[in-house]
């Protein structure tokens, strides 16, 4: 907060750009007039940064004074309108800077629909005869996930002008499929923790996790059928098969040094991108979007999912453990061949290949092996090369959006693609 004789203002920095917001002055609002911001309450949208200045004495009567000034900034809200300024704060003395991430802004924009989806999820995960089903499901569903995949379905439908309610069922379907795969994955991987909490297979048992996952798959197909769209059923059924196929492929390829980037990409498309692309695609289909727009939505989800997984794999070797929830090198210790290692193996000398064979294929790891692995990745620049790949896929996702309607959600989806890889910077 900076001050002068006549006005207070905030200077916000965002990606090497500077935004100056005038906070107070003592003249009425006029066109092209800086003094328009007397005791102003201003909600500003600049990429993923949202700044709210709250000054004393800004009651309802002051809203009119900055009406013209609002036009200087991006309007927000589900109908393209900024919120009533007096609703943000009234008669309070405070200055606050809020930074919101793109998925949080998307959630805020879709909040009513997300609430309806959550109600639907809780209703459909119930079981009259097997109380363990809602117990296990609730443990994972209520664990604080971002609901990113169902949000993508809602966002795609909204952006394409959909006004019905079948997109709610499809969003719940996508979340059920995702939850089912997590329950199964934790059994396959013998995981003990998910989203900072003990896994369902640890709290109950493997049988419960597998069977409840099967139940959620069945529920998801019930919801698909209720939309009355065979095309939607085809898309989501194919995605479910691709996910299972990707998991099986990963089991056979994860510790095999013959695994190249093509197989890695196939695994990533199966385990992550397939559901991202299906989520966006069905949103367009249910909205009656054109074939070109449906294809663009598929391409966006596919590229976003790949960028997301590549970034996740890179963060395993150079991320912040507190932010990622994983220890650095977990994938190495679990003998998983991810992109940074695959690139290093492809350039390895005979001696270096022997190291990768011992540590990844045979699993005979010693105390200093992680440091050696990181040194080899640094030698060949594979971490930076992996970062470039993630950025390239994020760029593909953003390019796909060009074929979609000009809408505030399109801007949020573009920001989301940037955010997925911004974790690497």
Q: What would you call the structural class?
A: mainly alpha
Q: Write the H/E string, N to C.
A: EEEEEHHEHHHHHEEHHHHHHHHHHHH
For the secondary structure, the number of strands is 8
- Beta content comes to 5-15%
| Lateral arrangement of strands in the main beta sheet | 1-2-3
Unreliable stretches (pLDDT < 50, length at least 5) are 1-98
Rg: 24 Å
Structure characterization notes:
The protein has helices at 67-70, 85-88, 102-109, 111-124, 132-141, 148-159, 166-188, 200-203, 206-226, 230-253, 261-286, 291-318, 321-324, 330-333, 339-346, 350-361, 369-380, 382-400, 408-422, and strands at 2-3, 8-14, 17-22, 42-46, 49-54, 94-99, 193-194, 197-198. Helix 6 packs antiparallel against helix 7. It has 19 helices and 8 strands. A hairpin with a 2-residue loop joins strand 7 and strand 8 (197-198). 59% of the residues lie in helices and 8% in strands. It has a 3-stranded antiparallel β-sheet, with no helix packed on it. By secondary structure, the protein is mostly helical. 40% of the residues are buried. It is globular and about 60 Å long.
Distinctive features:
three-stranded antiparallel β-sheet, mainly alpha, 425 residues, 19 helices, globular, disordered N terminus
Write a short abstract of this structure.
With 425 residues, the chain is mainly alpha-helical.
